[in-house]
Design brief:
440 residues; 26% helix; seven-stranded parallel beta sheet; globular; alpha/beta; disordered N terminus
């Protein structure tokens, strides 16, 4: 630990010296080698100045928990819950210093802090819901996702952000979305919430179906880079809804003074969720359905037909707030879920049915975070301590009733997965400045 702190101190000094006297490459906040480029393209400062900063919107973040005491997050995180241990969700249970839940929260709501990492919706509040995922200190066979979604809905979350997922194995799973999970999603939708989930990081591995992104009523999010090109790792799906920036994304670590740069559909989901929050703060009278209709209608790279890579385009909150949207603009997500939602509501009010019993979800890791040398595919370097590790997953289509046991993979989206799960980590790289660089 002491050695890590020493490395971070040197890294910070090198990064700060590198910026002295150099003109800023962009007006966007963030470190020089990982600026938050969407700030410029979305004209976020202009939106904030007009009052569209996420104020009045609660984002429920179902993840590993959030270190709410960090300077950038202090006052931005509500008392939530920890379904794997106990407490109010203010402890990040991620074993890695990266701190997945903390990182996603910082992308959404952080005030300027380490290396100027700044959230998209600083006026919004995070409702942390910690669940026992693989890679956490309290990992368990039951990930409590359905319970977490219901908790979010019952605690007035307008947006439910899920930067996680589980790959569906056709030979072992008969359902694309399990009944308790789907019922919880219906419940949240009836409460007026909008749900986002990662599409997955398996674009180069066949893009397996993943939940909860595959569940009816969920907005599945893929990742693009600064140029608007879909990232090679971003999973391609017929149910993909939107894409958002997910490459070279800076975020805070769960340990004070550490920040990271990473990539994945996990980050893209956090960015899309925060984008929705600022649109909702500008147009608070919109329903969740109306808000999503507006987000879909005003995307960049907008396509007349659905793309398995882009969904319906790249989210753009500036356009969503300012552009005119036809009254008959399509909303495939709500159109598809509407008949099931109506049936679910009727069954619920009739008292004839009750929510499906929770299924024990056996969480298994699809990969592990590793420390190693600079990757050939990924460009972001460690900002203050290493590259952000992530890997997540999701999906939306088939619906069936039943609560069979299944093996679910529920994890962070990883920047790089270890080739062999038990392979020893590669040695760190020493650069010309004598600094040892690590990547997650």
């Amino acid at each position: 630990m002491r050695r890590l702190i020493a490395w971070l101190t040197v890294l910070a000094a090198v990064a700060l010296m590198a910026g002295v006297g150099a003109p800023a490459a962009s007006a966007a906040p963030g470190p020089a080698d990982a600026p938050e480029y969407w700030f410029d393209s979305w004209r976020l400062q202009q939106l904030w100045d007009s009052g569209a900063d996420g104020s009045g919107v609660t984002i429920a973040e179902i993840d590993t928990g959030v270190n709410a005491a960090l300077p950038g997050l202090e006052g931005r995180v509500l008392a939530g819950t920890d379904l794997g241990s106990s407490g109010n969700g203010h402890v990040d249970r991620d074993k890695d210093a990266f701190g997945h839940g903390t990182a996603m929260a910082s992308i959404m709501v952080s005030r300027p802090s380490s290396f100027d990492v700044t959230g998209i919706a600083p006026g919004a509040k995070i409702l942390p819901i910690a669940v026992p995922l693989i890679g956490t200190t309290d990992a368990a066979n039951d990930d409590h996702l359905a319970e977490a979604i219901r908790y979010a809905a019952d605690h007035h979350a307008k947006i439910i952000s899920m930067s996680l997922g589980g790959a569906r194995t056709p030979s072992a799973n008969t359902q694309a979305c399990y009944s308790d999970e789907q019922a919880a999603i219906y419940y949240a939708l009836r409460k007026g919430a909008l749900l986002f989930a990662s599409s997955g990081n398996s674009g180069a591995k066949g893009s397996p179906v993943e939940e909860p992104g595959v569940c009816l009523g969920v907005v599945s999010v893929g990742a693009v880079d600064r140029s608007g090109t879909v990232a090679s790792f971003s999973s391609r799906h017929p149910y993909l809804t939107l894409t958002a920036p997910g490459v070279n994304i800076p975020s805070l670590g769960r340990i004070a003074g550490q920040a990271y740069s990473g990539e994945g559909t996990s980050q893209a989901t956090a960015i899309a969720s925060a984008a929705a929050a600022i649109v909702w703060s500008a147009k608070p009278k919109l329903t969740a359905e109306q808000l999503l209709t507006r987000l879909i209608a005003t995307t960049d790279h907008h396509l007349s037909t659905h793309s398995t890579s882009y969904g319906y385009g790249i989210v753009n909150p500036y356009a969503a707030i300012n552009d005119a949207v036809p009254a008959n603009a399509p909303n495939p997500v709500f159109s598809l879920v509407a008949p099931f939602l109506a049936r679910s509501a009727a069954s619920s009010t009739s008292g004839l049915t009750s929510p499906p019993a929770a299924t024990k979800h056996r969480a298994k890791p699809p990969g592990t975070v590793t420390v190693g040398s600079a990757p050939s595919r990924f460009g972001p370097r460690v900002i203050e301590g290493g590259l952000a590790g992530l890997l997540g997953l999701l999906a939306l289509l088939a619906l069936s009733v039943g609560g069979a046991r299944r093996a679910r993979q529920r994890v962070r989206l990883a920047v790089a997965a270890r080739a062999a799960e038990h392979a020893p980590p590669p040695a760190p790289v020493m650069d010309a400045e004598g600094v040892e660089w690590h990547q997650l």
